[in-house]
């Protein structure tokens, strides 16, 4: 069958508090996020692989605390926070030109009783920070880790990834995928994207038959 022309429509990602599924793999991170008063020096780093829900947690925190959010790679050298709670995402991408600004942001929030939430794929000891004073302060942060998904979280993640694409798969398909893909957030995102693309390109239904064909490849 000739492949049909398809368009890359953006997928709407649900990031509300009620869309976050808590399991053993992320329960600690969720509990820590919802209790900022317990963070030493009111700073926390959420560490987890790509697609593990770090941005989802950050969005929940942003909504609940009216926090200002910025990507580390976009942090300007003259950054001035506009809120008492600040979220800096993807800290492993902090450029050298923004390290002094990050140092001043950290100190400003600490001195004013503010809150600093950071996300990263790797812990602070692996961030490429050349500024010694900043490196020491980042390495002193409390870390909460999101582990690879267990069966419950992997199933919920697959369902959410389909729902973000306005697809309602049968439970049997979700169970089939859960037992056959690598137990990781990236693998779940990959198979859902591949199923959606293959179904659109070939005019087929998203089911176990199509999934088996893609997984065999």
UniProtKB/TrEMBL annotation:
One of its GO terms (cellular component) is plasma membrane. Gene3D superfamilies: 1.10.8.60, P-loop containing nucleotide triphosphate hydrolases (3.40.50.300). InterPro entries: P-loop_NTPase. It comes from the Bacteria. GO terms for biological process: DNA replication initiation. SUPFAM superfamilies: P-loop containing nucleoside triphosphate hydrolases. One of its GO terms (molecular function) is DNA replication origin binding. This is DnaA protein. It comes from Yoonia tamlensis.
